[in-house]
Design goal:
The protein has a domain at about 15-65 and about 155-235: Probable tRNA modification gtpase trme, domain 1 (Gyrase A, domain 2, 2-Layer Sandwich), CATH 3.30.1360.120. The protein is about 20% helix and about 35% strand. It is built from eight helices and 21 strands. β13 and β14 form a beta hairpin.
């Protein structure tokens, strides 16, 4: 195992929140001056109007700054073997130029994080995720001929999502008409290279763009010039969260607590309990947590993760779920009023014995002029995703 040296992480407190390579453009566009912290970076929560930003995701094209997303470079002769031991899916089956969604767990089968794995060459991968896990990755690499380093600061990334995102890229000079979902391609850009992957976190047609920090502003400017007549606009995390709930995607820190920072043992969850059992490749051989997950699969899970339709028009964020309005059986982890679906939807952890219950109720507290009104609203378990348009998969995409 080879380890690259980087700045001493113990001195992180000497720096304020960092600014991404796109900050000069995002700061100029952020009329509300609405910011939040993400992985040590300053990132936009809302630029101008949350509703309009969400509407652009579903009707036009949007740009979201992905620079704070944690990125690891994993390379070496045994990179695939190492990743097969670390993650749930079979990294060796991932073709060069392809991407897949995956996750990794502790020896006890508890979920640490999920993310996307890019195979850049036969011996080089990029792992992107929400939280920092370098110590775990390094410990897991003991005995493997592989080099691991964090490359978050070395990559400038944008998410370009929405029905007109394909048209924006074509107008910007990047022909992605043949690019299928979960594939990537490289293009010359500003004397260097731009990698475009057909991936995203909105459940819609979209792409993610990857380059170097010194080319970040040129990339932003080219996209906005190309998308001027196609409705392009920057979006913050608030609008993105609404879209990901409609897509039924889980997110660290909202839908589950990473096992390495979870304080209460009864809050630990496994991939099977989060609806991620489909990720597990049981035939690839040994991987971290396999034995524990096999036992849980045989015995059944205590918890399940479900999508819900909620009566009424109030978002049920943080609501407690009850059986027959009396017995607490779960909690809603993410919720919103969906403008596209015209209904209140939610994601929830629920005790498995009630996952098919037809007598579920959500205890919602809605603010009514400084006072909270308690409402018990019926909740119906439904199949995820809530929103799954055909344009997400069409190749080539339509020009909306």
């Amino acid at each position: 195992m080879r380890v690259e040296k980087r700045a001493d992480p113990r001195l992180h407190y000497l720096e304020p929140l960092r600014q991404t390579p796109f900050h000069p453009r995002t700061a100029a566009a952020n009329r509300l001056n609405s910011w939040t912290a993400w992985a040590g970076y300053t990132t936009a929560l809302v630029f101008e109007d949350e509703a309009m930003e969400y509407t652009a995701i579903r009707n036009a094209a949007t740009v979201y700054d992905l620079c704070p997303m944690v990125k690891y470079r994993i390379e070496g002769p045994e990179a695939a073997v190492y990743l097969n031991r670390l993650t749930l899916r079979n990294a060796a089956k991932l073709a060069v130029g392809s991407v897949h969604y995956t996750a990794w767990v502790t020896d006890a089968g508890h979920l640490l994080d999920d993310g996307t794995l890019f195979r850049l060459s036969e011996t080089r991968y990029r792992l992107c995720c929400q939280e920092r896990h370098l110590p775990w990755l390094l410990d897991s690499a003991f005995g493997f001929d592989v080099a691991i380093s964090e490359e978050t600061e070395d990559v400038a990334a944008l998410s370009l999502q929405g029905p007109t995102s394909f048209a924006v890229l074509q107008a910007a000079g990047f022909d992605v008409s043949a690019l299928k979902p979960f594939r990537m391609a490289n293009f010359p850009f500003e004397g260097g290279e731009l990698m475009i992957s057909r991936t995203g976190f909105t459940g819609d047609l979209g792409y993610e763009l990857w380059t170097t920090p010194d080319r970040a502003l040129a990339l932003w400017d080219r996209l906005f010039a190309a998308g001027e007549l196609l409705g392009i606009r920057p979006i913050g995390s608030a609008a993105l969260n609404m879209a990901r709930i409609e897509a039924g995607f889980v997110i660290t820190g909202y839908d589950f607590i990473p096992a390495d920072i979870c304080v209460r043992e009864d809050r630990l969850r496994s991939p099977l309990e989060l609806g991620l059992g489909w990720l597990i490749d049981w035939d690839k051989g040994q991987f971290t947590g396999r034995a524990a997950l096999a036992r849980q699969k045989a015995a059944g899970t205590e918890w399940s993760f479900v999508g819900l339709d909620i009566d009424g028009n109030n978002a049920a964020e943080g609501a407690i779920l009850y059986h027959n309005q009396k017995h607490e059986v779960g909690v809603i982890t993410g919720a919103c009023w969906s403008p596209t679906l015209k209904k209140s939807i939610a994601l929830a952890q629920i005790r498995t014995k009630y996952a098919a219950d037809t007598n579920l109720w959500a205890e919602i507290y809605a603010l009514r002029e400084l006072h909270y009104a308690k409402m018990m609203m019926r909740a119906t378990v439904v199949v995820r995703p809530f929103f799954n348009p055909d344009r997400r998969r069409a190749t080539p995409p339509g020009r909306f």
